[in-house]
Amino acid sequence: MPGELRKTLAEVVSAHAQNKRSRARFEFCLNEFVPEENTIHICFRYVAMAKAANLSRSDLDSSSGSDLSVSSRTSNRSLRVVEKERRRNEAGDPFLLSLKYFSKVEAGTPRIGNDVLERHLVQVERVGLSRGLPPEAISVMLDYAMSLRTGGKICVRVLKFLIPATVVPQEAVVQAVAWLCVSKIAISTQVLFLRWLLTVFDMIDSKDNLRAIYGFIFHFVTEENLSPYICHLLYLLTRRESVRPFRVRKLLDLQTKMGRQPFLLHLLSLYKVFCPELVTLALPSQMRSGFKNHNSMWKAALSAVQKRNNSQVSSDISLTLGVKHKTNSRKRKYHHLEVPSLSSSVQRNSPFSSSRKVFPLEQLHTFPQLLDNLHRIELPSQMGSLLGSNLSLCYLDYVQDDSAFLRLNFWLGHALHEEFLFCSSRDGGSGSSSEALHLLNRLLSTQHFLQEGFSSTEGFLYKFLNVWDGSLLRPQILGLLSDIPVVPSSCINQLLFEPLVQLFFTSTLFFKCSVIDCLNNMLLKWLTWHSVYALEDGLDISLHSHTPMNMSLSGFMDSVVELVRFVGRLAAVGLQLEGCHSLLLSFILDFYETVCDMFLKYGLPLVVMPPVGVFYPALFATDPVSVDRLGYIMYRYKNNLISAKCQQKETKQAFHISRQTYREFNHYLSFMVSCLWNSKMFLPGMAIEVDQELLSLSKVAKPWTSFDLIHHPAFLGYALDFHHKCWPERKEVDLNSIKAGKQWDWYLEFLFSQGFQGLQQFVQSSITRRSVAGTNDQGQGDRQPTNS
């Protein structure tokens, strides 16, 4: 091919072939084709046609049918359509145009009189407050605001409507934190940004890079106005590797200058959990909330946006949101009570995750997976999400990480206080109360799984009992109450007994039964904890739960005595108020079945007898089940007292059962034997004496036999049935004939065969029965009841 012609073709091709592939294809044609005239004519004709039709690069490509397939041409056409549609949407959507404007606005742009700026700002503000901003919009607007391109007032305005619709990009937050070092940002604006950051903290998609700049954030802790918010943020970001000696020293110096501020104490307490050897400061076991809620500005907007969008991203709004009213009464509705969804704090595809080979919690589905990845599991950013996964609770119980329990208590404390403590039953509808029911049921199942309660739940209950009406979520509240750990005897009356007394005496029968059952379960759990720790540590036990309280054996026994005596007072008065109702009496006897076995079953050297207001109503009950259970309780009391006395003589341990306890037991025992067996009732010298003139007015024949095993109202029906079976031909009923000869032994066998095992054990252990052959069993009483 001649050189001039070749040069001309190259210029034409360069001018009309806009695509690199098109130019390469023409260069291939020029280099490889033989210099024949036909070929030259074809090349000129091709260029002329392209030049005349002004074809685009896509058309030039399509003219080479040998190089592109039909499917490729269809794909290119689809891409062009999508691109045109996107450009058309951008051109027609004012929100996207506004975001594009703020991404390109330059520093120093005037604010006053700038109608374009105001129009775009109003557009983004309207979207943010109505349906929330997407992650891309959060990034653009946050960078625009913190860079102060149009002044500080615009920054404050933007932060107020910066409501995320789903998640907040981590990189946007990191970039915004970097702007804090710019001295021209006002302190009030920095405070507002930190408040916003704490509000949306749980909506940040990942925390890896934030933790990477932990030292940079810690630098601001010395700023007096920023310190409360910086400490709160550091509390949420702290891990074991974050605790360093120089940081501990800095916090201690700040405490010396500022005093024992709650936010400093809470951050130091977390440091002490991770590294107790670094924090030697003695911290109080009970501290008031160290981090206040400063988020009334965003609460209503966030709630409205999430409800409108039905967001799938669960955020712990109750952790950080709370409106503080100074004049109006504080009431709460059940907002955002859903348990957060389980998600790892490390992004699945992040470099940090791949380098450490972290196993995300949301992928944990089976117990073998838990065992295989036990040392690679990362705790979630929202500790409340652990309540929704039994496998995660298994992991939490295994690792015994104090920091994890501390974070979980922090979440629970805020959720329960903010959403329940100041609410009334009129504040929430049926849908919201179902959310509250679900949360409390989940909390109950978690505590039962871990076999211990949370300290935050305990603190909430002590306050809630003072405002509780006894009906709102009663089963759940009483269930949580039964899980609280041992309360010191010095404060148990004020914290627990006084609120319960007011509710108990003004409530229905069923509430009284529920309270007695709750206190019985509480005592059972206290005794179980004691038996476990007593086996581990001997008699000097410590309650090694995740609460800051330690207690000696003597302190534990004092608390148990206070609880048992309190229930005794409730039971005695409750039986009087309810007319010795059999249902209430059944729950009371359940409690004393636990009390009578405290020494033999749980190893606690303590015996507490029931009050007379419980013993006599149970003995004179009209249902045989109550009398039978009382017999079993007395049988177990006797075994416990005998064992305690024998063990005290053998081991000479430093505990003893008081003589008053033995006197009370002997008094009850002798009265039961005289009443049920010897038919000696209402006689001089007995525990219950009735004037003879009053007995004569009752016109009851032989009233002293009215409560033996034959004439007792609880067993009268069985005696009549036995009499009819023994003497079916008799028309007149003579129950005293049962006491003669072998009929008495037969009657006892008949009575015990009806399932009264407790009564049988009481009779066999406490009453002497001489057989016909003259053999006798050790006990107390006569051969048979007196036939008077």
TrEMBL record:
One Pfam match: CENP-I
Localization in the cell: Chromosome, Centromere; Nucleus
Superkingdom, natural source: Eukaryota
Keyword annotations: Centromere, Chromosome, Nucleus
Main location: nucleus
UniProt record, GO biological process: CENP-A containing chromatin assembly; mitotic sister chromatid segregation
GO cellular component, one term: nucleus
Family from the record: Belongs to the CENP-I/CTF3 family.
Protein name per Swiss-Prot or TrEMBL: Centromere protein I
